[in-house]
Fold this protein.
Amino acid sequence: MSDPILEVENLRVTFPTHRGDVDVVRGVSFSLGRERLGIVGESGSGKSLTGRSIMRLVPPPGRVSATRLALLGHDLLKTSAKEMTRIRGKRIAMILQDPKFSLNPVMKVGHQIEESYRLHADADRGQARGKAIEALSAVRIRDPEAVYHLYPHQLSGGMGQRVMIAMMLMPEPQVLIADEPTSALDVTVQLQVLAILDDLVRERGMSLILISHDLGMVSAFCDRVMIMYAGKAVETINARDLDKVEHPYARGLIASAPRLGDDRPELPVLQRDANWAK
Amino acid sequence: MSAPDWLLTEAPASRRQASLGRWYRNWLVFRRNPLAMIGLAIVALLIVTAVLAPVLPLQSPTAQALSQRLAPPGAQHWLGTDELGRDILARIIFGARITLGIVLMVVAIVVPLGLLIGTISGYIGGALDVVLMRITDIFLAFPRLILALAFVAAIKPGLESAIIAIALTSWPPYARIARAETLTVRNADYVKVAKLQGASWLRIIWHYIVPLCSTSVVVRMTLDMAGIILTAAGLGFLGLGAQPPTPEWGAMISTGRDFLLDQWWVATIPGIAIFAVSLGFNLLGDGLRDVLDPKRT
Amino acid sequence: MANDVTTAARAAAPGQIFGAEFAYELIRFLGTLALTLLGLTFVTFVIGRVVPIDPVLAVVGDRAMPETYERVRQELGIDLPIYQQFWLYLTKIAEGDFGTSAMTSQPVLHDLFQYFPATLELATAATLIGVLLGIPLGVVAATHQGRLIDHVTRIVGLIGYSIPVFWTGLVGLLVFYAWLGWVAGPGRLDIGYDGLVEPVTGLITIDSLLSVDWDVFKNAIAHLLLPASLLGYLTLAYVSRMTRSFMLTELNQEYILTARAKGMPERRVIWRHALGNIIVPLITVVALSYASLLEGAVLTETVFAWPGLGQYITRSLFNADMNAVLGGTLLIGTIFVCLNVLCDMLYRLLDPRVRP
């Protein structure tokens, strides 16, 4: 593996509650090279917050701490808020789950894409517009000129997510965090969107963090898979070795997934163990 | 087991324990809000003084003593006297009875009316719903103060007309709230079960729907009370509300106007009373909303 | 896939927005407006009929001959069934005939035009003050939730909701006019300045600017300042509170996270993206507070001797001049209703999510 692009060591996210502080992410460590890393876990496992703390976008009153959180050797925790705005989007970008909510409802999508470009590049509106249309065709939208003028609510889910991808890839970030990018989409559209994402990430040599609850999907699209449970990274494994996974939670997950040609009369139910959360 | 433990238990043994527990939990949240507690204190003070006014050691609110007219605040008259030598403190405290009376009367008319219209409209639905809601919308779009004014002027200036006029223009929001709440529960399983058991629609509305509207209505009501007080005082100020010698706060400001430059206390003190009481209801309502209706804050 | 592009694109074609659905929307709007105005006229009609004053006597005086009395009675249509009377009332109003004011002996409509600009000037100035301060205050409160500025905004709002405006007017005059002498007293102008500028719009501030008369302008502002600030405070209370609550909802939306993830400076996230999403509901809030200022004029104008509609209505009240009272009520009511209904319409036109 080449030099790490992103280094995360002992990452913690803490939320204060009336019963004292609660750690939602509890000491997660990993490093990311020019590769595609999947983070898998159930809801509440801390996988989304892991992604957000890398961008320093954990909502208050949440607090982020880590022994090391560095992008290309640059300590993100010591970066000023102002400098962070130059890193977000330009170096690390993020795709959210549901384009119905994650696009600004009262702005034409074309303008939203342009805005993303102009935040990081010195360009006039005309240039930005050309770039935006280019970006729309790059995500295989057939009539980019027409889509440019639409409002988010006029788009289907798959279209919306492609717009989101186009927008986030516009400033050509080095790291892309995709947080459940297909969970809100129809099953038929999921694969198309993933394929587009996959192509663009390969083409531009980006690093990808794909956050999902879908173990099968993540292992198909990623090089490595990190499995999270109750705020901890319980195991990291190469995607092609997934069947050799050791942690009982991951084993349970794999066992409970249905397979074609299966002749099991009942799918086994995940048996949880209180020790996993320790 | 101590009382708070009994109230806060995760496993209540009876319905009563569960409901008391919920009240207690709400109270714990409410208590942490200092502004809301101030509001509660003001409202409590208003109620206590209003109830106790006749037995408090006060001077008469209506007895005139022309020799002591327009006396400034001092040892004998803590808040001074008005143009007829009446003790302002006594008038303020007796005025609290009137203010509280107006608020309670208006609420007593408006809340049942709004609930009735809203729940029936929401539960029965169809053409009735359309007609009732159209009427509600029309009333909602009316200028409240000025219609109340014209109404009172047309009938006969006085306390009763003021109450009726305010009530006639205040019910639509309650109908809207009740209808919205009804729509969310009318297809709930427990309502269907009641229907299957042969409950009449009146019974369903009264026993199954109205209780669920109560929190939103209570919040709205508390916040409305300040508005009612201000409107009533406004009508009083214009001479359309309570008639002399009744010690109504708005009317007191109106008479004090003539002496504003030299005897400022005659007009200012009743205004402070109106402001304090409205603020009390607003603070209380705001706090209640935070506790009972967090989604609307 | 290709399908959703074309259907979506078709839905957005500009011609479509102002097509059949727009016409439907317009008809719905006019229908609502007509119905509400009908309701309003009906209510004023009923109020007019319950007056214990004999409308015939009001016209003929109590020493009239029985024949005259009878003739006027028929002219006024008192004999007719109630629905015909209402119809008569409606047709008269449609012709602009609100009757004659007993107080001024002028047609009520004429009086209304005379008095309305003063009210309009005051309400507009107050709204400007309230909106220009209230929106930024609400935004800052929302972005600093739970901090000092948020608590201050909350208290400012609660005080505004609790204050009897006629009383603040009196106290304001006492302090700022009588004691401190910072502002001019009651009325719109000092007596010496009255009638110096040609009334064009009826708004003295504008008229004095049109005739480039700085002295009159300054005097008018000095008179306007106190009442407009006090009323503006009410608007500020309402607008800042609503802005805060709308902003809090928006700031929790996912698209705000998207904007931040794009690397957008926080200031732009707040003032362009979040605020951009609440402009439409804010317009409604502002219009409603404007409407309530118009009707609240009955109280403030009395205090400030402001020669507007409110004062006209209250003075007519005490002269038992019901024609004038009902005419004024109907005019303010109509504006109120129009603003109300118009807001709903604007909401549907401006917000792309609900645009037909």
Q: What stands out?
A: Chain C has 15 helices and no strands. Chain C touches chain B through 53 residues (CB under 8 Å).
